[in-house]
Amino acid sequence: MTPATRSVRAAVRAVGVAAAISVMASSAVACSTGSERTERDGAAVDRGDMVMVSEVRSLTNPYEAAWVQGSRAYAESLGIELKVIVYGGDSQNALSQLQSVLAAGKTVLLNINPNTSADTPAIVRAVQNSGGCAVTQWSKPSDLHPWDVGNGWASYVAYDGVQQGADTGKALVDSLGGTGGVIALQGLLANEISQTRFQGFQQAMDGQSGVTLLDDQPADFDRNKAYTTTQTLLNKYGDQVNGIWAATDSMALGALQAVREAGRAGEIKIASAADATPEGLGAIADGELLSTYTTDPYFNGAMGLAICYQAMTGEIDVASLPPENREFYVDQSLITASNVDRFRTVPSDEEIVRSVQDPFSRITGPVAR
Amino acid sequence: MSTTEMTGEVTTPAETRPPARTDRPRVRRLLSTAGPLTALLGLCAVFAALAPGFATASNAMAIVEQAAIPVVLAMGATLVVLVGGVDLSIEGVMAASGLTFVLLAANSVNGNDLGLLAVLIALGVGLLFGVANGVLHVVARVPSFLVTLGTWFVGLGVATVLFGTATPQLADPSLAAWAGGHWLGLPVVVVFALAAVAVTVVLCKGTRLGMHTYAIGGDESTSRLAGVPVGRTKIILFAVAGLLSGLGGVLATIRLGVGDVSVGSGSLFLTLSAVVVGGTLLSGGRGGPLHSLVGVLLLVVLGNGLLLSGASPYIQQGAQGLIIVVAVIATGWPARSRLRVVK
């Protein structure tokens, strides 16, 4: 037995023990959330007993950074403590960090963008059982509804990906004058929002006959992969390519880099279907990108907390809310060169707080499934 | 990364073979050297026949350009694998160096404008990470895959802190011009890649350090007895690997035009796969930089050719994985008795 194998064995043993402990810990958590039910009895909660939690994947993503800024503006306006949880795309981490905040004893008001739809049940039940309130956004299992879980899960907020894809696809077709060839870059193939955007894009393509879809490839939401994929496809199709559609800004910007290096900037039109990142908006203002879509992250970050705050103070009664206030699509807007300047300014804290005075003001309809 | 079962036994070298079979090792060595190259040429021939637009000058240029940054990274990874170690910190170091670079060069977030000095400082950050990897591995006697797993996430953490809240955009026109620019008629990234290959080849084949590297990979305890400075050699190799990861991070950041924590995402898989596919043994001692160059080209050609031939995205991913598994078996088969553990 060499020193190397010995140390590896020790390491393996340590990892094994750590894994066992974490399994025990999570099962203990599961037991505790299952047994102690302290669901609220409808009495208003004092402001000093509340803690607001804004939970996102990463702060290096401009959308989520803006979302947290919206949460912060709203929490500060009420003088309530805000905890920001960044779980780095790790579902287990997302739940365990939330558990430690729940265990601290204050009433939790949670606004979360879950890692995957499968994480939703565990998150909302944990919050509900601790007597708190949760609003989840973007994704959930389609057969699970807030009214089935209880009053601890106030609302589920979603964004219509089909509309994003269809509007940006139409903008691309129009910019080509109705004839030409286009390439589509999807996100991760298994990702639901990426699928719905592409579905919308295909609807836009079906509605006309002059523009052909040459190729569609997944670029995994990754800027580098979008760059290399576009570079390769430009070699394959050459002058047949007149337009590129990408599911997000970062992929559109990767494609833009490849188009620039091929010496065809301005000649190939590029449409992004989502995110409205500062860089994407800058590229639209410069005429290098055609479109993007915004769901107003500042509003989203504050709105979820506002719904919970109003539920906790008794301003609204979650149990008697109609289904369309428990599960809904929120208004979003197409951004093109004609209106880009309006979206390039960051809203002030007062504007953010004012926009969520009625957190249900931007409902556009029930979630289509 | 696969570690074989750890039986803890000290395996004895294979029994001495009868003299009639002395030519076998030479045949094997030839296979492991010429195999990947033959595969690369074969793959090119197949795609040239099947995929429209594959055998064109512009596509050849695209392949070379797409392979450039992975080649830079693979050179460093090869050195570490040659002594039987592994460096998993590539993506973290790329992120830390990339963000250091973009925040020190002219950018949209702060008032710095150090120009080329920013590149050098970012390379220094990569070097620091490499030295830390080497020292922790050698002095603290922690297996390299655990140390570098740790520094991978340290690098990502450093990058996330540097990133702050707003995406820093590179605003230095002369550095940004490297993205699509040419030197000596070649894309800038390709010039860097060729330089990295040349330096690594010289280091491996023409210096005492290279001789020690192969000796340690071949048999570490015997080398130690023979007076080879094992610890010092390993620290230097990890440092060079960190430096090259840093260079990869800077080049990738220039290509994107923005600082991004996920600038290296996917690089680790591609780099280590390329090292293995190229025929460098994970147990160390055999292979080298030119093997890895062929390995990177093989994987890039595979991805490019499958995309051009219109294969489904699912098949593209599966084919890459399959090729790696086959390559590991093919290169590791003759040495399976020695593959006890990835050191």
UniProtKB/TrEMBL annotation, chain B:
<dbReference type="InterPro" id="IPR001851">
    <property type="entry name" value="ABC_transp_permease"/>
</dbReference>
<feature type="transmembrane region" description="Helical">
    <location>
        <begin position="30"/>
        <end position="55"/>
    </location>
</feature>
<keyword id="KW-1133">Transmembrane helix</keyword>
<keyword id="KW-1003">Cell membrane</keyword>
<feature type="transmembrane region" description="Helical">
    <location>
        <begin position="67"/>
        <end position="86"/>
    </location>
</feature>
<feature type="region of interest" description="Disordered">
    <location>
        <begin position="1"/>
        <end position="23"/>
    </location>
</feature>
<feature type="transmembrane region" description="Helical">
    <location>
        <begin position="314"/>
        <end position="333"/>
    </location>
</feature>
<feature type="transmembrane region" description="Helical">
    <location>
        <begin position="145"/>
        <end position="163"/>
    </location>
</feature>
<feature type="transmembrane region" description="Helical">
    <location>
        <begin position="93"/>
        <end position="110"/>
    </location>
</feature>
<protein>
    <submittedName>
        <fullName>ABC transporter permease</fullName>
    </submittedName>
</protein>
<feature type="transmembrane region" description="Helical">
    <location>
        <begin position="235"/>
        <end position="258"/>
    </location>
</feature>
<feature type="transmembrane region" description="Helical">
    <location>
        <begin position="183"/>
        <end position="204"/>
    </location>
</feature>
<feature type="transmembrane region" description="Helical">
    <location>
        <begin position="290"/>
        <end position="308"/>
    </location>
</feature>
<dbReference type="Pfam" id="PF02653">
    <property type="entry name" value="BPD_transp_2"/>
</dbReference>
<keyword id="KW-0812">Transmembrane</keyword>
<keyword id="KW-0472">Membrane</keyword>
<feature type="transmembrane region" description="Helical">
    <location>
        <begin position="264"/>
        <end position="283"/>
    </location>
</feature>
<feature type="transmembrane region" description="Helical">
    <location>
        <begin position="116"/>
        <end position="138"/>
    </location>
</feature>
